[in-house]
Write a structure and sequence with these properties.
Layout lengths: L1 H15 L4 H8 L3 H8 L7 H11 L3 H5 L32
Amino acid sequence: MFWDNLSAALLRFCAARSLSYEEVAERCRISPRYFGEIVRRHTSPTLRTLEKICAGLDVTPNDLLLRRAGLDGPAEDLAAVPDRAGAAPAQLPKAGA
């Protein structure tokens, strides 16, 4: 379940900001290949890598992984987390909408 939440959150982040795996991996200072393997759940990130991902996305582990009260899925509101410039991207439609 943890890896499903992480994968879903990373996919939402990429989609919400129209970023490629390569761009997000660069922000997180990890290789694009490794980032893709994490997203596809082919490998598990170390704690250090999870820290790099959170730092690169400018979110806390809770923002990235945990379900928030009143939301349908894990990290549902990740798209609303402002980027480092302070601009919040457009909200993604909920699944099935």
